[in-house]
Request: fold
Amino acid sequence: MFLALFAFVFIGWRIKPKTLLNVCLLDKTVLTVEDGNDIDIRSAYRKHQGFFWLLEQQKYVFQNKKFYNYKTDYFGPLLDETGKIKSRRDLSTLDYTPDLMYIADVYGAVDDTYGYYDNSTAKGAGITVDDMSVISYAYENGATVVAEMELFNSGLDSSVYSQLSSLCGIRPTGWVGRYIYDLQDFTDVPDWALPYAAYAYSKGYTNGVGPTTFGTTMSASAEMYTEFLLRALRYSSTAQSDISNAPERAYFAGVLTAGEVSALHASAFLRADVVYLSYYALETNVSGGSKLSDTLIARGVFSDAAYRASRAMVNSARIG
Reply:
């Protein structure tokens, strides 16, 4: 019975007529295989490979009536069989009018899973002025333009940014949302840490360090933890991508003292610093509200008596 059903489905797919759909797909974010990294060539095209599979499954073909090849039929950096960049297919070389313009990803080609492990620089990132001219041409000639959600966060020229905003009919706010189901998208969170990572993520205190990396094994820096506190106190959010000046922003927000900023920059960040900063954060006002300690007491997280008793045990003075 199962074999008969399988045969029926397969035969049905074979006899289904092909549908012509001229697709122009731009994917500048392919993973390149280099010595010393752990990139699997099979995942190099992951930003568009699934889309091409869907096109074939639905029997959409190019104007030459052939199925799309995810290794060659896209615009962006092209790889050889070893996973290294062999050439680039620029969008400006488009020589047909597409029915569908799909901007899959434009972060740029990298050799370390988006530049988070060895801080490599993405190659060929963003939408260029020439790219924008082709996109506008396709749109004006009837093409449906589809773009991934973080297109506006990929380092765009001001004129390109303005044209894209107009074409898409939106006014970007800088906020980025992402749905995570049980943190399955993050590959480095152990089972025991899932509840804690999930809580921090759901509250907007952290959004990980990469598309698939939460940063569980990384050493926390003073900047990281200060940014964590700023978000918890609502002085910052996940829209803040540059955290290098987090201690200084915390000073101007009244979260840290000048002496504490100097101390954080002067020495390695230790667990004792986490305890110290967390303790004095309790005496800091939440943005637009009362002290964090008062908020937690009101919510029943701990009692006023317990908080006073814990403060009585602290004999050292705060760094001025």
Q: What stands out?
A: Residues 1-6, 112-120 have pLDDT under 50 and may be disordered. Strands lie at 19-20, 23-27, 60-61, 76-79, 85-89, 100-105, 144-147. The first strand starts at residue 19 and ends at 20.
